[in-house]
Predict the 3D structure of the following.
Amino acid sequence: MRWWKILGLAGIVGVADTGVIVAREERHRRAYTPDEIRERLHTRLAETPPRPDTS
């Protein structure tokens, strides 16, 4: 029975850690200004290869 308790606590700790990581990443994303986001998107678009013509 003790192993089940340890396994359950480990699962709860894992879920809590995941929530902390997600919250931290969200704060990093929200730290960008709209101009920075637009610039990054334009840069990513310029780096992508053109789509082949499927006509």
Summary: Helices lie at 2-30, 34-47. Residues 2-30 form the longest helix (29 residues). The mean pLDDT is 88.
